[in-house]
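notes to self, project folder thing:

trying the whole complex as one job this time. last attempt i did each chain seperately and stitching them together was a nightmare. two parts in total, labels are on each line so i dont mix them up again. if this works i'll redo the older ones the same way
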Amino acid sequence: MNFRAIWAIYYLEMARTARTLLQSVASPVISTSLYFVVFGGAIGSRIPEIDGVSYGAFIVPGLIMLMLLMQSTTNASFGIYFPKFIGTIYELLSAPVSFAEIVIGFVGAAATKSIILGLIILATASLFVPIRIEHPFVMVLFLVLTSVAFSLLGFILGIWAKGFEQLQVVPMLILTPLAFLGGTFYSISMLPPFWQTATLFNPVVYLVSGFRWSFYGLSDVSVAVSLGATAVFLLVCLGIVWWIFRTGYRLKD
Amino acid sequence: MQPIISVSHLSKTYDTGFKALSDVSLDIRPGEIFALLGPNGAGKTTLISVICGIVSPSSGTVTADGHDIIEDYRAARSRIGLVPQEITIAPFETVWDTVAFSRGLFGKPKNPAHLEKVLRQLSLWDKKDSKLNALSGGMKRRVMIAKALSHEPTILFLDEPTAGVDVELRREMWEVVRGLRDAGVTIILTTHYIEEAQLMADRIGVITKGEIILVEEKTELIRKLGKKQLTLQLQKPLDAIPASLEAHDLELADDGGSLLYSYDTQGERTGITALLGDLADAGIRFRDLQTKESSLEDIFVDLVRKS
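result (full assembly):
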């Protein structure tokens, strides 16, 4: 294992974040915090509690999950797409580095950034709404699994994309709607029966539900099913990454 | 002598169906400067890209210092440094960071003294904290060489290293390349500047349409394929070459003002004495004469045209 190469890639990516703190950290923290201000402070006080949890507190896990999905995907996709775009990918491909090491470097950095952002947002949320974490270990497990899984998705996206527009397609046109319709702002038990069933095909439901359970013990689906679904998604992404590197898809030709 | 790079029956066909390399076999000797010449699209960059691991070969094998580039890619690649044709560097990093990154990528421990030596050698030391987007084109190209040298490779590929750089910088780079060769680094360079190959290379390879058509020692190549030309400037222009001189295969030039005679320096007889005698017999007088040896460029153009 070329640990120095992994560290070099990881350090390079983290240094990029440090160079762009406003864009990488301040922007997602501020935009997510606005939800707490609006829904937690202003509108939330007029919405009844859900299963004994104030509306402002209820949406915190979903909002953190929304941010995690978006940031993990965009950070990892940009991380690998940028070297492709400017041509420095040659250096990765000609170095004595295995594909697994490249993935660990890029995905590790993207996931680290997302986890740090998640924790900052959690701390920020606690300033606006009362939060309790009943299952901290599960909370951290979801935080890590989701960050890694969606960083892998972002990595795949970055390899696949041929332009900046394609890079934006998945986060904006697929992830955002899935997150908004995945129970971020409501419990799916509040939906009509047909939509309760339909929404179970949305993978984000399992992430939000499991993550919310780790906070308040409330879930739309069993936490074991949520963890299982997250693990399956992670494995599917790993499988696709393995295939990309085995075939050199959009990298070696 | 065991070759440091051995390419055997290498072919590459891209997904588009374009055959970039066709059954290429080539050995590079340790410590030499090998110049790979070829017109645009001949397959020079594809060949380098396959050896360095950037492009997958369709068939054939390549070893670097005895290590297969696919089966034993870590050992093979750790010996190779690559300076690609295009200037490709992350614009917002500093010179030091990008060179240190390259060294780390090759699994080498930090060695500030070596990086300093490389940067000083390339006249980049005073720019080590500058961002790459603030550097001139020539400096960026030197940064790419510094990156390639950061992990102390024993084989260095330079793909058009002096394309688009000014004459002064080109000469500086030649000095750097010579210094590296003197330090034991094997150098493979592709170039469009025949003068560069003529000045730098120990051996020359010519590639065209994906095939290596010639590999030869530079001096031997010039000796074997080079020709000399005698130019006779006539006192009175001729309308046509007289029949008595047809055997000499002369050419008329300068609107009949000069006669050109090509001959092989390696031949047993050059035929010059007989020609001068026949000219005198024909009453043709000349006011000046000069000889010119064909350059590597003439040889290259001739080879590619014939292939």
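what i see at first glance: Chain B has a mean pLDDT of 85.
need to look closer tmrw
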